[in-house]
Specification:
Length: 319
């Protein structure tokens, strides 16, 4: 087995149990939060997160992978307080979330730039994995990057290559936010492979937003796992369509490439709680346990298939 770093310390990969591979505890912008969210109550937000994650554990989920990185509001001390109060393993990430450019802090520093130096992003990511994040003692267990409809912009490529380099140095697995509308998962695989990444250690995130099974099989044939990870975001793809796509993947023999999640959160500052509930009423941590798994079983998957998807595949992502 393999050691997996969690917020409360290292565990053996066999202890992950049923794992949702892409969930956020908090998604927020610190500057916006500090300057404009006058009703922010830190203690209430922490209590609410503890309640939601405790409920998730009671539904049979043992671990979540939280790919909240720079650009999404990662703040480990808050997550530590929550993790100390829940019987649920939380694996946090390092990386950078951008669809276009790198932040200004990096635009002039790096190989061949105004301040010519080794890639500072790689150095940051490696440090988070090997030494810990911001003096908290919590080590990142996964790496995260993104590619969207804008495609492989110079900033996106720079981050992706830095993530690939950090993977080669640390062995930490990778999750990539992609948009299947432009088959950007294939682009991510190409770039990461050029950096020496083992594609079997890559989850192509948001693969469940498409029902193009042939595209998904191409990703899986290259070795990667498929992030069927936005259950509840029915406005992107309805639940029954997502379920049908997984059933077809399993029928074709790809059960060992399927992973599940909601890409949900305890709190997000993109919109109000009421707007979130109105636009995506099923976008919460209970949806997979209460609705999706029964639908998969009704559609022909076996209990062993579900165990492979929720337990074996996330474990192998680390091993």
């Amino acid at each position: 087995m393999t050691t997996v770093q969690t917020v409360t310390g290292p565990i053996d990969s066999s202890e992950l149990g049923r794992t949702l591979v892409h969930e956020h505890v908090f998604v927020l912008n610190t500057e916006y939060n500090q300057n404009y969210q006058d009703d922010w109550d830190e203690e209430e937000r922490i209590r609410d997160a503890v309640e939601k994650l405790t409920e998730l554990k009671a539904l049979g989920i043992d671990s979540i992978m939280d790919p909240t990185v720079l650009g999404l509001g990662r703040y480990i001390p808050r997550i530590q307080r929550i993790a100390a109060q829940v019987d649920l393993q939380i694996v946090v990430a390092t990386g950078l979330y951008t669809y276009n450019d790198v932040p200004h802090q990096f635009e002039h520093r790096g190989p061949g730039l105004l301040v010519d130096m080794p890639e500072p992003l790689t150095e940051m990511f490696v440090k988070d994995v090997q030494e810990g994040i911001a003096g908290t003692g919590v080590r990142a267990g996964i790496l995260k990057c993104a590619i969207e409809l804008a495609g492989l912009t110079p900033g996106v490529e720079r981050v992706m290559r830095a993530v690939g380099q950090a993977h080669v140095q640390t062995g930490a697995p990778i999750t990539v936010h992609t948009n299947p509308a432009n088959e950007s998962g294939l682009v991510a695989q190409r770039v990461l492979e050029e950096e020496g990444v083992d594609l079997s250690k890559v989850i192509i995130g948001h693969s469940g937003d498409t029902n193009d099974v042939d595209y998904l099989c191409r990703l899986a044939d290259a070795g990667s796992m498929l992030g069927m990870d936005r259950f509840g975001l029915d406005l992107f793809n309805p639940m029954q369509e997502r379920v049908g796509t997984i059933i077809e993947l399993v029928r074709r023999g790809y059960v060992e490439h399927v992973t599940l999640a909601h890409d949900a959160n305890c709190f997000i500052d993109y919109f109000s709680a009421d707007a979130k509930a109105h636009a995506a009423p099923n976008w919460h941590f209970r949806h997979i346990s209460e609705d999706v798994i029964p639908a998969l079983l009704e559609g022909g998957l076996t209990e062993a298939d579900v165990e492979t998807i929720l337990v074996d595949n996330p474990r192998r992502h680390f091993e």
